[in-house]
Design goal:
Elements: E1 26-28, E2 35-37, H1 38-43, H2 59-66, E3 72-74, H3 92-103, E4 109-116, E5 119-126, H4 137-153, E6 157-163, H5 171-190, E7 195-203, H6 205-208, E8 217-220, H7 231-238, H8 249-254, E9 260-261, H9 264-278
Parallel strand pairs: 5-6, 6-7, 7-8, 8-9
Antiparallel strand pairs: 1-2, 3-4, 4-5
This protein binds zinc ion.
Zinc ion binds at residues 29, 31-32, 34, 48, 50-51, 53.
């Protein structure tokens, strides 16, 4: 007979018990570790008041920041049909359903027409939380339509990129969007209407390789990661250590890949200034 017997059951792990601390009330700045009250952060357009770190923001927040007031959204209903019946760790169809449920969006871009300092503008803003802001058929189609809408109505175009690149679950079909959007932008240019590309953290892959770098003016937010392939892949390929600040906005500005690096709090004014300058005078 044992000296001790386990009489009580072990404590059950509380797997599904909710945390008592309300989530997202305070945010810690990943750059300077300052703890910021949620509402204060919203007031500064999600820029750290202490070190000016730019937090990632969603598409709708972006539109709110750019437009003077209300805007009209277009093509909200478009959604991917999973043309390749693609399966990776889980079926793409399931992944789409889950993402649509968690984000309340149908795909990774919102396109709208509204006023930026009273200039009517066609804007497409990408949503990074939707499968990494990846560009599939729907993103390509919505952006193309936003450009065509601008040509029809003689409006300037602003596209805010925030993307990991093409959507691999749609294979070659997603790569075709690069050409499709670029074609629409060429028609916009022929119609003598300006296009401002806004590159935010992160802008990579097929998005960088197509419309994000095709702006009449390419503007980036400070310290945004902008590139085609990631730094690790490049390092492995060229077998060299990459320089400090490689693929960040300031580095690219210095080397002529960008025209401006603008703080988010001044972004709207900067874009409006470019549009006023570039728009054909009546
Ligand atoms: Zn900070």
């Amino acid at each position: 007979m044992a000296w001790f017997k386990k009489v009580r059951k072990p404590i059950e792990p509380q797997a599904n018990k909710e945390s008592r601390v309300p989530e997202g009330l305070w945010v810690k700045c990943p750059s300077c570790s300052e703890v910021i009250y949620n509402k204060d952060l919203a007031a500064t357009l999600s820029v750290c008041p202490k070190c000016a770190h730019h937090f990632r923001i969603g598409a709708v927040e972006r539109l709110r920041m750019l437009f003077d007031g209300e805007w009209t959204e277009y093509d909200e209903g478009l959604r991917s049909t999973d043309p390749l019946a693609f399966v990776d760790t889980k079926p793409y169809r399931k992944r789409l359903e889950a993402t649509i449920a968690s984000t309340g969006m149908k795909d990774a871009v919102v396109s709208a027409v509204g006023r930026i300092e009273d200039i009517e503008t066609s804007v497409a803003a990408m949503e990074y939380t939707f499968i990494g802001g990846s560009m599939g058929v729907v993103v390509g189609e919505k952006i193309t339509r936003a450009i065509e809408r601008a040509i029809d109505r003689r409006l300037p175009v602003v596209i805010v990129a925030s993307s990991g690149g093409a959507r691999m679950m749609e294979g070659a079909l997603s790569l075709m969007q690069m050409a499709k959007i670029s074609g629409a932008l060429a028609r916009l240019s022929r119609a003598r209407l300006p296009y401002v590309s806004v590159l935010t953290d992160p802008t990579t892959g097929g998005v960088t390789a197509s419309f994000a770098m095709l702006g009449d003016v390419n503007v980036a937010e400070p310290k945004a990661l902008i590139g085609f392939a990631g730094p690790r892949v490049i390092e492995q390929t060229i077998r060299q250590k990459l320089p400090e600040g490689f693929q960040r906005s300031e580095f690219l500005l210095e080397r002529g890949m960008l025209d401006m690096v603008v703080d988010r709090r001044e972004m709207k004014t900067a874009i409006a200034r470019v549009l006023r300058f570039a728009l054909p005078q009546p």
